Amino acid sequence: MIWIGSFAPGFAIKDYLEGVKRELEAETGGRVFIGAGLSGEPQSPEAVHLSYLQAVRASEHLRLRRECRVLFFGDMEAPKAAMASFYAELLQSLELSILKNEAASVKSVVERIIANMSTEGTPPHIVRSVYLNAVSVILNGLHRFSHDDASLLRLTDAAFRHRYTIEQMAGIVRDSSSKLCDIIQSTLPPSRNVSRDEIVGFIERRGMEPDFSLQRIADYFRMSPSNFSHYFKKTFGQNFKEYIDLQRIQKSAQLLRETSQTLDEISRQAGFTNTSSFIRSFKKIVGTTPGQYRETHKAV
Asked: How many C-beta atoms lie closer than 10 Å to residue 154's C-beta?
């Protein structure tokens, strides 16, 4: 760290640093980059510390972008708020995929994270922040499965070293996530071929129960929710929720026609968690409220 002070009015600090850069390159024969921060109130220790942090961030920007020049923190382009929000959503998706043991989804999200980390317009300090958060999420996932603490500690130590390039950070994220996905795959029970009739039979037996869900049927057939959802849509031509909603509405319509049960009773028998959601779903699919449907049927 170089601390520069001058009492001269209008001191050309950037020109001075350009000269320092040239001297260092001449002395060392190497490529030199200089990140600089400016102290607003040099007599304040806090201001000096802030200037140091600014210089570190500017230096990190130049190092990761391999730009050999002088860069002041104030000249760096500020990241857009939408960018931070986008990365936060990606990291949440990664964490959720790991919690649900969905290896394919983990790989997909990791590749999206790496692709965006490597984008030219992403500020390097954002790249490093995303890298550290992504690695932390992956290491937490590994910790759930791994009993080899020494191996995990070595991986953690390697992941959090400071002097990595973007390519090296991407490689660490990819390799550690691949290790996690292999472990997830090894812990899942083997999937089996499932016929359309088996799925229909299970839905007929359990589909009207209030706690029936995608997770429950996927567990029954020893598949991940995402894999079962994809297989279901490919087999039935519609997504799982649409199919179940239609089955429940058909059941409730039958009860409306053939019984005098209350809407609350019909709602429970058709698997809805409450009467309000039953009425909304019924009107959305049938076009009328349950009460109107019952009156029309009686009139006929």
From this structure: 11
| Residues 15-39: tens digit of each pLDDT | 888 898 899 889 998 888 888 887 6
Q: For helices 45-65 and 124-145, what crossing angle results, to 10°?
A: 80
Of 64, 31, 62, the residue nearest 165 (C-alpha): 64
Q: How far apart are CA 56 and CA 232, in angstroms?
A: 52
Residue type, 195: S
What 3 state SS string does 118-187 have? CCCCCCHHHHHHHHHHHHHHHHHHHHHHCCCHHHHHHHHHHHCCCCCCHHHHHHHHHHHHHHHHHHHHHH
Residues contacting 130, CB < 8 A, separation 6+: 87, 90, 91, 113, 116, 117
Report residue 121's pLDDT band, with 50, 70 and 90 as the boundaries.
low
Let me know: does 146 contact 72? Beta carbons within 8 Å: no
Instruction: Output the CA torsion sign for 126, 131, 134, 136.
Output: negative
- Closest alpha carbon to 134 in 71, 72, 90, 99: 90
